[in-house]
Amino acid sequence: MKFLCLGYYNRRAVEALGPDQLAAVMKQCEPHMAVIAGSAAVRMHVGLAAERTKQILRTGNAVKVMDGPFSEAKEVVGAVLMIEAETIEAAIEVAVLHPTTQVPAGEQLGWRMEVRPVHFLDGVSLPT
């Protein structure tokens, strides 16, 4: 099975850090990122940029492109992983190695990881 993992953070808490503080937190992430990168179960791992974000939505008969993220959004997705594992428990064993749960400073920054089974990939339904 495939599992999509979304790593969230509190945008306001991260923005409140100074550049040196943020760099120090990100430095703590490096060993955990290496573990994730070395996992055979991880099929994809990306970090998402906060700048130049756009939202596409349909309103009536028009499709609109709007700037984002929106200021009222407290939580932001900052990382996306695709894990292949036999069970959600096995996927969690891999996802828990990510900096969102391993770096102590992440607690104050609202870091958390959500693990979701994928039921559809590239137009093909997947077994559940």
What can you see in these coordinates?
- The chain has 128 residues and is an alpha+beta fold.
- It has a single domain (2-120), classed as Alpha-Beta Plaits (2-Layer Sandwich), CATH 3.30.70.1060.
- It has four helices and eight strands; from the N terminus they run E-H-H-E-E-E-E-H-H-E-E-E.
- The strands form three sheets. The protein has a four-stranded antiparallel β-sheet. The protein has a two-stranded antiparallel ribbon with strand order 3-4.
Q: Using the CA coordinates, give the radius of gyration.
A: 16 Å
Q: Remind me, CATH topology? A: Alpha-Beta Plaits
Secondary-structure-based class equals alpha+beta
Task: Tell me how many strands there are.
Answer: 8
The CATH homologous superfamily is named: Dimeric alpha+beta barrel
Mean pLDDT: 91
Shape label: flat
CATH architecture term: 2-Layer Sandwich
Main beta sheet, described? 4 strands, antiparallel
Distance between the termini: 7 Å
- Please give the CATH class: Alpha Beta
Record the strand order, biggest sheet: 2-5-1-6
Reading the helices and strands in chain order gives EHHEEEEHHEEE
User: How much strand?
Assistant: 35-45%
Number of domains: 1
As a percent range, the share of helical residues equals 25-40%
Low-confidence stretches: none
| Helical segment count | 4
